[in-house]
Amino acid sequence: KIKHLVPEGGWRPPYLGLWNNHVCPRLGEYKISELTQEIMEWYMEDHWGLNEDDELQVMKQSFHLEKLTLQMAIRSVIPHYSVDKELLKDIKYHKGVKQQLEPLTPSQVYQAVQHAKGFMGDIFLIMLYTAMEARDIFDLKPKHFKNGVIEKKRHKTQFSGKSDIRMPIVPELQKVLDRHPIPLDSNECIFKFTGTWQNYATTVSKAI
Q: What is the pTM of this model?
């Protein structure tokens, strides 16, 4: 069965999270020989639903990575296997791009702050005070703190592009940071979290 397949070198981020959360739960009980176009159509509909015209749709980047994840698993036993050629060539579907949400209003920000409790609440507050995204906080390290300023490379996203983060540590932010031990190793992540940064970001969103 597909759930028993492991690529050479094992599963690593970001494919580990995609395998555990999407590909294996939906396709793990099938054998490779049992995979069909109909099963992949079901995969798309179960994952992303249908559009307003009852047609198949996917999130372009997410589906691309999930296809690669499935392909990596199958290639552990069938080298050069192509998911596109074997399973998707006759499927018609729409490729969407995740839309950016409207900025929070001051009232919404205030309400979110009132609900920001515990570890994930602190992560939200750091995002609020610094305009950093969850992915950038995920690998925040002591070496990024320099003379009262957070300085680090911003991870590239489809919205923000890639740039440098340079944010003064205001007193309110310092109070939040003081609640979390700073590692002695300058290259050790400050905030410990098991899983991929995608899971981390989702958890932060649900927590507030």
A: 0.52
